[in-house]
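In practice, a research group might receive sequence data for several interacting partners and want a quick structural hypothesis before committing to experiments. The following worked case mirrors that situation: the sequences arrive first, and a predicted assembly follows.
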Amino acid sequence: MTGGLRNTAIIGIGQTEFSKKSGRSELQLAAEASLAAIRDAGLSPADIDGMVTFTIDPNDELALMRCLGVEELNWTARGPFGGGAASATLQLAAAAVASGQAKAVLVYRAFNERSGQRFGQPMAGSYGQAGAGPDFYVSYGLDTPAKVYALWYQRYMQKYGVTNEDLGRYVVTARRHAATNPAAWYHGKPITLEEHQATRWIVEPVLRLLDCCQESDGGVAYIVTSADRLKDAPNGGARVLAASQSHRRGGQIMYDYYRDDLAEMEEIRTLSQRLWADSGLGPQDIDVAMIYENFSPIVFLALEGHGFCKRGEAKDFIRDGHIELDGSLPVNTHGGLLGEGYIHGVNNILEGVRQVRGTAANQIAGANHVLVSASRSGIVLGPM
Amino acid sequence: MAGVDDQYFWDGAREGRILLRECAACGEVTHPPQPMCPHCHALEWKTREASGRGTVYAWLISKHPNRSEDRPRIVALIDLEEGHRLVSNLVDVDPAEIAIGDPVAATFRDVDGVVLPQFVPVRA
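A structural hypothesis for the assembly, expressed as tokens:
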């Protein structure tokens, strides 16, 4: 049990605009978003004594500290697995607060991943460098995230008879939600299933263009403190009901190809067990879910892995309208990473807080319990 | 990038062999390679040659996002008959004819100046 985390809360959120060309440095985006979150919490930079982000963030803690004029940091931490750690940020921040290591932790994520080093393009460094000698992946052509993930999403689609058109039904929903979210890059731009199907293959025969998340410029941040400060937070916040990670034996970042059955993502199921045990809730108690989607198929795996529907039934769950704003489980009410923007999944946490506060653009009435899943990390938020 | 933990694989490929790394203490194969055996924690390794026969577990057509290519590569996960999985390429095959589960056999080709194991369909 992580019952101790229940005495922590998110009391402030902040973000920049989400664009394709911010025109300013990544550190500036981080600083702008962080300051907005600190002010939203009713705090000043002098109150911040911890910082959390996760791997690949270009912004150094001390550089951000200098920008904000933070007096002293006593806690820093970064989770593993890129976007898989998006929700781990809350676990790391809340654990610091609950254990007394920090009083107010700033969580941040900021990138120019479209106008700068494009996330979807062949990358040097983090994904290995072609021409720098052989390796087990890039040497064979696996040089973009879309290719890397398509190899195992194909097994899920094969096992359960999921077609690219089925994927498109999720994408249409996400874009419909983005269309009525003024902060979304695709605000006012819904699509039809036919338009999805007419986009080119990015990775044939698995992913079309609109199955891929955006490459975005932008920054987001949020503030974690003890829950007793919720009452003084000018804009309220969301209590932490559970936060956990699940990485399993033999797993590997990106190229996670070495488990017997790649059609199942066991981490989502074991993560869920922790989240439900710690929160005392179950899938039937969740009012809204944010699900990290680098690519559309992961939503299907997550809906099943978290127990919202049975294995292989996500395509029917989506087709039957369950994830719409008026459905039994509205999903990615901000438009998700495909529709709103790809700030590496942390923007999903901000939408979770807005739903609990009752301030979301696409507000779900009575949204009390929100799941924010990043497949290998996840959180459950609840009311003050 | 080839390093102390994976040099054996590329050396083997140059000799036309797929080598797997076997723990010198407990005999378990670990791929991809790593410095410590996860089964017995030994640090000494031997190599074991795989037959080169296997089946297609998953595949995709790999195109460069921006450059047009005459012949896009096909990337595949290959389940070796010994029970281990490799990332590799399928060659000498029309994508329209690939199916998951197809039997394949290793061949060795020079790709960008490096010899890599590649796989071709095994015709019935």
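Before designing any experiment, note the following. Chain A has one domain: 3-117+213-382. Residues 59 and 113 of chain A are 13 Å apart (CA to CA).
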